[in-house]
Amino acid sequence: MWKAVQYLPENLQETIAMTREYYGESWISDIGYLKWQYEANPAGPAMIQLARDVETGQLAGQYVVIPMRFKAFDQTVNGILSLNTLTRQIYTGQGIFTGLAKTAYRECAEQGSDFCYGFPNPNSYPGFTKKLGFTDIGCVPLLLRPLNLRALIKDKVGSALLASFTLPFQPFYKVKERSDERYEVYPLTAFNLTEMNVFWAKIQDKYPIIGIRDADYIRWRYFENPYRDYQLYGIRKKNGSELIGYIVGRTTEVEGLSSGMIVDFLIDPCVPDAGTLLINRLLRFFVDNNMDMAGSLMMPHTEESRLLKGNGFFTCPKALEPQPFPVIYRRLRLQGGGVGSHEKEDHGDGVQDPFLQRNHWFLTMGDYDAI
């Protein structure tokens, strides 16, 4: 028998011990990472429900969401991102996941959260869609671009001879240095984000639904994360100071391949050609750090997706994806602020919820918790 209890900061060490039983030593059980994720978020602290064994007092599971602010249809709305869900193995089958989740959604709705979204892995996907009333609004395509074709073939096939046959194709994927006398690409640091708020104010209506990317968010998400190193570049017109776009990347390993991931990318629609320079500069960083492949998650209807494809990226075939990247959505409150039923796909007036349309969203790895 278990009961739901509200998480308190003093419970952090307990949750870490439980997480280490499940995942071992990793970023998800690192105290610095969790303090950053749960306590330092400029949108507010994490909202966590714990399951506790009523007889032994042992933690049996947890359900975690963090607040995420969005600009949606000319309004600022409050979302929550579902992450770090966990049930201790000996307590599986007791309804802990669904019980804690429903309690969390009710409390978040009462506190002003409008919706919950997430990027579930294949194991948790059925629980969200079949038991918790989430709607799958579609997948975010994985875009790929070879950087070292010969190394890719040799690593994956194991044949140096076959890899040698790729030499005639290597020039097609070679990242050439690009420049444009109209623009200047420069590194973004935690100390030169003053123009980010101006840029965000100008760009915030580019897409109907977009996570708020102001200076506070960028600083927290990319510079204060103790477990990730990100490379950020901004672009401005020569002899100007106004930010007109930015790109974020990190180097990592995916499926045994040295990979450079484009985590976030947003460009002023008035100067789309500047986006190509940002992509090129980050790809050069990946090449200089001996990455074999570049990847990005980007919605297919976006200008940023078009720019990536114009610079050698292609949509990864489903059969080759390390895993699918579905976006799931559940409304928590009806239009007007009332707490709503998860079974409704409209606002109560017969109008379909516009959040259910994938082409309304701008989502990247920057809206995801683990990359």
The backbone outline, from C-alpha atoms, is globular
- Looking at CATH, the homologous superfamily of the largest domain is Gcn5-related N-acetyltransferase (GNAT)
Report the span from N to C terminus.
36 Å
CATH class of the largest domain: Alpha Beta
Radius of gyration: 22 Å
Low-confidence stretches: 157-169, 341-349
Descriptive overview:
The protein is of the alpha+beta class and 371 residues long. It has 2 domains: 2-139 and 325-353, Gcn5-related N-acetyltransferase (GNAT) (Aminopeptidase, 3-Layer(aba) Sandwich); 142-320, Aminopeptidase (3-Layer(aba) Sandwich), CATH 3.40.630.30. It has helices spanning 12-23, 31-39, 96-110, 125-131, 149-157, 160-164, 170-173, 196-203, 215-223, 273-288, 303-309; strands spanning 2-6, 47-53, 59-72, 75-87, 115-118, 135-139, 142-146, 183-187, 209-211, 231-237, 243-254, 257-267, 293-297, 314-315, 326-331, 361-362. Strands 1, 2, 3, 4, 5, 6, 9, 15 and 16 form a 9-stranded mixed beta sheet that branches. The protein has a 7-stranded mixed beta sheet with strand order 8-10-11-12-13-7-14. The protein is globular, with a radius of gyration of 22 Å.
